[in-house]
Design goal:
Blueprint lengths: L9 H18 L1 E5 H20 L2 H8 L5 H15 L7 E8 L6 E7 L3 H12 L5
Antiparallel strand pairs: 1-3, 2-3
């Protein structure tokens, strides 16, 4: 199997990416395999860049890819303005270890400036280290 195909045919791979990116925009973070997270990242970054620009043309391009109107609205009304003048790097991938059933490497992909991600990172910093 060649790297980057994820063991799927083109239509199934495209559907996987569309649903994963839609879920990412709705929930700010998703847990998936490392390979899928690394494949989703450039797609999400491009869509967020389009949302930053906010033009009708970019909204229509994003609407061709994002599955739910609610996710598209959130992308352009909340996520795009939230990233502001950040020149890129809108997502982060955090490795989580191996999945129990098949030992697949798991990862969490999340939006960097998401309110939930920011609140959790602040809470982690405030919590004392357990010994």
């Amino acid at each position: 199997m060649r790297q980057g195909k994820l063991g799927r045919r083109t239509a199934a791979r495209r559907a996987l990416f569309r649903s994963s990116v839609t879920s990412l925009f709705l929930h700010d973070r998703i847990i998936t395999t490392e390979a899928k997270a690394k494949a989703i990242r450039p797609i999400a970054e491009r869509l967020i860049t389009w949302a930053r620009k906010g033009e009708l043309h970019h909204r229509r391009l994003a609407a061709q890819f994002v599955l739910e109107p609610r996710a598209l609205k959130r992308l352009f009304n909340e996520i795009g303005p939230m990233v502001g003048d950040r020149p890129g790097g809108y997502t982060r991938i955090i490795k989580l270890g191996q999945r129990r059933g098949d030992a697949a490497p798991m990862a969490m992909i999340e939006l960097v400036d998401a309110p939930a991600a920011t609140a959790e990172s602040k809470a982690d910093k405030k919590a004392p280290a357990k010994k």
